[in-house]
Amino acid sequence: MQAPTHSARPRGRKPKKRDQVTEAMREHIRLGQKTADSLGDMLEKELAAGYGVGRETARKARDAVLSEISPEGPKRPQGGASSK
After folding, report:
1. What would the mean pLDDT of 3-27 be, rounded to a whole number?
2. Are 21 and 57 a contacting pair, CB within 8 Å?
């Protein structure tokens, strides 16, 4: 009996959306398509729509990228009481 051959899929965890979005944001900053400030100023719903993910995923990815860049941590847009 012959041993089964390896599958084409690499071992390890599958890439998750947040990892993919984080990498895309890093790449946009690296290429000059976005700045850390512009990324920090974007609303969650704009990020989510722009990267094709949910608001929480977009926020977590942005926070991860901005925390790598700035030791103070991510900058969040200031919203009034009516902002949601």
Report:
1. 77
2. yes
Token pair 């919203």 is at which residue? 79
For residues 15-46, one letter each, b for 16 or more C-beta atoms within 10 angstroms of the residue's C-beta and e for the rest, the string is eeebeebbebbbebbeeeebebeebbebebee
| DSSP of 10-34 | PSSPPPPHHHHHHHHHHHHHHTTSS
3-state secondary structure 41-83: HCCHHHHHHHHCCCHHHHHHHHHHHHHHHCCCCCCCCCCCCCC
What is the pTM (predicted TM-score) of this model? 0.68
C-alpha dihedral sign at 62, 46, 57, 20: negative
